[in-house]
């Protein structure tokens, strides 16, 4: 995969997990273990002697918890971090905080016996996550590449391109995000006034986290934020978070917008896919839609953004300076579908200004 193995450092208070994960990592030709520590304070002293390319981090540890350590690392020496914790399923809000604080991926720590674990798919998932994370320059905000182990279907597998006539004059805002997006979405909604047209969001996130993400945004912003459900009508002042593991589309019946949730293959390596949401919106809303693409790794949303733009919608992308990973915005810009590129702080105002003009 790479000429020089990626350097990995493990921070976990379990000696057994440090040993087992260390052996698994060292057995992979693309990774090399450069150190382990039972707590963040010892970890930082060791890492200062040789800094890793990627950190595998637990959450619950003595002296300093993993989330606090993650925030410290991302502010002082930004480094790709993969969270591996037994708390990710029982406490999804911890996982959301980790993702908001810059973690590239959150993986559930194995609950099976170590003997079974060594021969399980969980090991492969951790190794893939570490390799993927190690390619991301989180401080330089430079998009280096995307994972290549998932098939890359286009939105055609879910929704064919049509020339259907738009039958509604209602406004709708659609937004896509991935790595770094949990915090970016929060900031976007914070600066978006209550009572705005309905906002439908695809944030790449595992299924078990999306409801907690919606609840958190509902509590911390002025908007009514809910996890999207099939046949749910879109209403002013509401924000709809796409559930993980299923595609979300907008359909129109009798001049009103509704959500349609539909299972299917990965599109642009994701489910839900931003491309699927954007294409459906372009077809039913056309010029009455506004599309926004935020920080994220990969190219999901670039084709859909182009289709929105071609349908007359207003389209915006987050700029490189304020993106944690300038992948999805960059791809959308280069494809020619973005009408305006702005900082995360300026995007909400630009969107509202466009709505007034329409």
UniProtKB/TrEMBL annotation:
<dbReference type="InterPro" id="IPR035909">
    <property type="entry name" value="CheB_C"/>
</dbReference>
<comment type="similarity">
    <text>Belongs to the CheB family.</text>
</comment>
<feature type="domain" description="Response regulatory">
    <location>
        <begin position="7"/>
        <end position="124"/>
    </location>
</feature>
<dbReference type="GO" id="GO:0006935">
    <property type="term" value="P:chemotaxis"/>
</dbReference>
<dbReference type="Pfam" id="PF01339">
    <property type="entry name" value="CheB_methylest"/>
</dbReference>
<comment type="function">
    <text>Involved in chemotaxis. Part of a chemotaxis signal transduction system that modulates chemotaxis in response to various stimuli. Catalyzes the demethylation of specific methylglutamate residues introduced into the chemoreceptors (methyl-accepting chemotaxis proteins or MCP) by CheR. Also mediates the irreversible deamidation of specific glutamine residues to glutamic acid.</text>
</comment>
<dbReference type="GO" id="GO:0000156">
    <property type="term" value="F:phosphorelay response regulator activity"/>
</dbReference>
<dbReference type="InterPro" id="IPR000673">
    <property type="entry name" value="Sig_transdc_resp-reg_Me-estase"/>
</dbReference>
<dbReference type="GO" id="GO:0050568">
    <property type="term" value="F:protein-glutamine glutaminase activity"/>
</dbReference>
<dbReference type="InterPro" id="IPR011006">
    <property type="entry name" value="CheY-like_superfamily"/>
</dbReference>
<feature type="active site">
    <location>
        <position position="178"/>
    </location>
</feature>
<feature type="modified residue" description="4-aspartylphosphate">
    <location>
        <position position="58"/>
    </location>
</feature>
<dbReference type="InterPro" id="IPR001789">
    <property type="entry name" value="Sig_transdc_resp-reg_receiver"/>
</dbReference>
<dbReference type="Pfam" id="PF00072">
    <property type="entry name" value="Response_reg"/>
</dbReference>
<dbReference type="GO" id="GO:0008984">
    <property type="term" value="F:protein-glutamate methylesterase activity"/>
</dbReference>
<keyword id="KW-0963">Cytoplasm</keyword>
<dbReference type="GO" id="GO:0005737">
    <property type="term" value="C:cytoplasm"/>
</dbReference>
<keyword id="KW-0145">Chemotaxis</keyword>
<keyword id="KW-0597">Phosphoprotein</keyword>
<dbReference type="InterPro" id="IPR008248">
    <property type="entry name" value="CheB-like"/>
</dbReference>
<feature type="domain" description="CheB-type methylesterase">
    <location>
        <begin position="166"/>
        <end position="358"/>
    </location>
</feature>
<feature type="active site">
    <location>
        <position position="300"/>
    </location>
</feature>
<keyword id="KW-0378">Hydrolase</keyword>
<protein>
    <recommendedName>
        <fullName>Protein-glutamate methylesterase/protein-glutamine glutaminase</fullName>
        <ecNumber>3.1.1.61</ecNumber>
        <ecNumber>3.5.1.44</ecNumber>
    </recommendedName>
</protein>
<feature type="active site">
    <location>
        <position position="204"/>
    </location>
</feature>
